[in-house]
């Protein structure tokens, strides 16, 4: 069962962020908070895309490196690097992203079905592609993305 993106009078409410050259969006209701990069403790034998765990106000949260998850080359953290803390299916996970862009409201009419492959990411993780003036925004399907993550044993 796929979650619906928050709609307000035909508008989608999204938090947008960059991974490599691409801009992605997720439903604002899934985002708990956005934090600066903090100490990440590695976890032995974790999948390659799990950088480790963080302690956020007493909660241990796994951190998914989205560059690794989408098979992009590693990159050193910058002052813009952020962890987007999201909750879905009663699990809290941090997504390590290159930069957070903004909170957007876009008309749902600007969103098209995803093409077969976008930026090397299989279309099974993409809910749609939003057209915004001179840029494209890839809307991630968190349910599908998270269902393929192995975070239960962390």
TrEMBL record:
GO biological process, one term: signal transduction
Presence of keyword Cytoplasm: yes
Residue ranges constituting the CheW-like domain according to the UniProt record: 11-151
Protein name according to UniProt: Chemotaxis protein CheW
Subcellular location as annotated: Cytoplasm
Keywords carried by this UniProt record: Chemotaxis, Cytoplasm
Organism: Candidatus Desulfovibrio intestinavium
SMART domains, per the entry: CheW (SM00260)
Chief location: cytoplasm
Superkingdom of origin: Bacteria
A GO-annotated cellular component: cytosol
SUPFAM superfamilies (alphabetical): CheW-like
């Amino acid at each position: 069962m796929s979650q619906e993106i928050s709609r307000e009078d035909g508008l989608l409410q999204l938090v947008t962020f960059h991974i490599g050259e691409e801009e992605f969006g997720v439903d604002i209701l899934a985002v708990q908070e956005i934090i600066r990069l903090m100490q990440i403790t590695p976890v032995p034998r974790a999948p390659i895309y799990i950088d480790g765990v963080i302690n956020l106000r007493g909660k241990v949260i796994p951190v998914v490196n989205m560059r690794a998850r989408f098979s992009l080359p590693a990159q050193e953290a910058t002052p813009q690097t952020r962890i987007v803390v999201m909750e879905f299916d009663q699990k809290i996970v941090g997504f390590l992203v290159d930069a957070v862009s903004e909170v957007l409201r876009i008309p749902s009419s600007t969103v098209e079905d995803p093409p077969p492959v976008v930026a090397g990411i299989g279309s099974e993780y993409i809910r749609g592609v939003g057209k915004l003036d001179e840029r494209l925004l890839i809307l991630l399907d968190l349910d599908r993305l998270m269902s393929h993550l192995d975070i239960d044993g962390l």
